[in-house]
Amino acid sequence: MFKPPRCPYRSCGMHLEPDASAFRPHGHYIARCRPHPIPRFRCSACRRTFSRQTFRADFRDHRPDLNTRLFQSLASGVGLRQSSRNLGLSRRCCELKFRKIARHLRRLNLNMRGPLPDGSSFQFDELETFEGRRNTRPLSVPVLIERDSRFVVWAESATIRPRGKMTEARRRALERDEKRLGRRRDQSRSRVLRTLQRGAELTSKLGRVVLETDKKTAYAALAKQVFGSMRLVHRTTSSRLPRTIENPLFAIN
Predict the structure, then answer these.
(1) What is each CA distance from 118 to 161, 204, 207, in whole angstroms?
(2) What's the maximum distance between 2 C-alpha atoms anywhere in the chain?
(3) For residue 113, which phi and psi values (nearest 5 degrees)?
(4) Per DSSP, what are the bridge partners of residue 152?
(5) CB 75 within 8 A of CB 58
(6) What is the pTM of this model?
(7) Are the C-beta atoms of 245 and 116 separated by less than 8 Å?
(8) What are the respective helix, strand and coil percentages of the chain, to the nearest 5?
(9) 217-250: burial string, b at 16+ Cβ within 10 Å, e else
């Protein structure tokens, strides 16, 4: 039988310091997407009610039966538009489900990972993509992995300023974007720093940290700031080398 692990309301004292005896059964309700009744509970501390569904990843979803199929579709490289066509959902609905799944997996990653063992090595790099429009809204995605297991320690997107050849048509498109969305911020440095900090959390007890990157100058200073210059072993490889299996950065590439 399900027992609430805590009160779901953050303002309640039973949220951070729960007492199992504080949650009393409070009836049930029938959901069309579930074959069995869903029990409800009342918190004796704040007197508010909640259900077992409150603690599920598909809480408040209208079509929870499609979550697994959407996850498999996106993990296979299918875009949001094509996924929405395949599943019979609107693109906005797929986007909201995707964000919710991503938040759930992020928390799962933070909860399940632990300190890395001796001999672990990191590899770090950034990939560039875009949101909505290639020539005006570029993105950088810093990624940190453990080299041997290829465990993805952290990855997140960062807006960056458009660069490269500036044609007249591109300049006009940038002006229209800035009027509508404001001047685009360059978040690359702060996101790189936060990604490296996620790695530092897993190596706090190690006396030596090996980090492998390309020769981008900003990485060296940020790595020393995060891991400390005394225990950091920073190895660099030219990004111009062929991305073959012999390349030292093959795992992250």
Answers:
(1) 39, 11, 9
(2) 69
(3) -80, 155
(4) 145
(5) no
(6) 0.76
(7) no
(8) 35, 20, 45
(9) eebbebbeebbeeeebebebbeeeeeeeeeebbe
What tokens appear for 78 in the block? 């299918």
Q: Which residues pair with 126 in a beta bridge?
A: 142
The H-or-E segment that residue 140 falls in is strand 138-146
Question: What is the distance between the terminal CA atoms of the chain, rounded to a whole angstrom?
Answer: 47
pLDDT of residue 110: 82
Nearest to 153 by CA among 118, 189, 122, 111: 122
Cα angle vertex 142, ends 137, 144, to 5°? 165
Q: How confident is the model at residue 109 (pLDDT cuts 50, 70, 90)?
A: confident
Cβ(124)–Cβ(144) below 8 Å: yes
The region of weakest confidence among 71-75, 138-142, 162-166 is: 162-166
Residue type, 229: S
